[in-house]
Structure formats: structure tokens, C-alpha cells
Amino acid sequence: MFCEGARVIATDLPNLLGNLQYNVSRNTKMKCKHQPEVKELSWGIDLEKNFPRSSNHFDYILATDVVYSHPFLDELLTTFDHLCKDTTIILWVMKFRLDKENKFVDRFQELFEMEEISNFPSLNIKLYKAMKKKR
Ligand SMILES: C[S@@+](CC[C@H](N)C(=O)[O-])C[C@H]1O[C@@H](n2cnc3c(N)ncnc32)[C@H](O)[C@@H]1O
Which residues line ligand 1 (CB under 6 A)? Predict the structure, then answer.
């Protein structure tokens, strides 16, 4: 985790925050200017309450392997949309598994301009850079 001088928030579901806090502490101890904040985020839920648009201006959103066989893809898309300003850059690592989940890329592209930055064909993994489309 690179957090020298940056304010970083690591998120996960409420029941996983203990594990996340442990991992963040282990990986950042003595390596960070500012200790990353660990915070609850359930995709699509209480977004404005927990991450008000007026006070959150993220430069980057890092998302790795968040698209797989789970029933919250709509909520995930809503969350990306909520957290992004016009200038926010999303760096998103996608592992391609099943057709149904892979279609998320098309839906994502309706809201975001995206560019492929890296491709690891033997692993079915791509890294994308994305920004909100001008609406
Ligand atoms: C496959 S893991 C990837 C974890 C990590 N980003 C990585 O690449 O190692 C998917 C992550 O998404 C989280 N997740 C799944 N459903 C979620 C939801 N509805 N809201 C928030 N986080 C969720 C899981 O708890 C888990 O941490």
C-alpha cells in the first residue's frame, strides 16, 4: 500500500473490518506518513450518509477483483458513480471469469470512459483506468 503523504481509506463490509484493520496495520507499520483509515462500505448502502459528496473528493479509487459471482453488481456501479468526481481516476483490476459478470464491463462503460492499461492474458486479468463520462 502506497500512502506516503496521501490520505487513504480502505473499505470493506462491516463484519470484515477487523481483518482489514489487521492487514492494513501489518502492511503499513513504519512505512506510512499517515496511517490509512479503515472504514465500512457496503456497496450501494448509506453512501451519502457515510461518504457525503460535498466532503469527499477522491483523487483515485483503487478496486481489485470486486466483480465476481455476487448479487451486488448494480450496487457496485452505484458506488463507483457516487464516489467519483469528474477528476477522480479509477484504477480497476478485473479478473474475467463468467460471461454474466464480464458484462459488467459494458455497463461500467455506459457511465465511465475507460482505457486498458495492462493485460495479463494467461491470468484473464486486465487493469483499467477510468473516469466519469461528461454527462
Ligand atoms: C475477491 S475479494 C477482493 C479483495 C481485494 N480487493 C483483493 O484484490 O485481494 C472481494 C472483496 O469485495 C468485498 N465485497 C463483496 N461484496 C461487497 C459489498 N456488497 N459491499 C462491499 N464490499 C463487498 C469482499 O468482502 C472482499 O473484500
Answer: 12-13, 16, 41-43, 64-66, 68, 70, 72
- Alpha carbon of 109 to ligand 1 centroid (Å): 21
d(CA 90, CA 8): 14
Every domain of the chain with CATH number 3.40.50.150 lies at: 43-132
Report how far residue 126's alpha carbon sits from residue 118's, in angstroms, rounded to the nearest whole number: 6
Residue closest via CA to ligand 1's atom 1 equals 65
Q: What is the pLDDT of residues 100-111, one digit of tens each?
A: 888 999 999 999
Binned at pLDDT 50, 70 and 90, residue 1 comes out as low
For 43-132, CATH number? 3.40.50.150
What is the position in ligand 1's atom list of the atom closest to the CA of 41?
21
| Spatial contact of 37 and 8, defined as CB atoms under 8 Å apart | yes
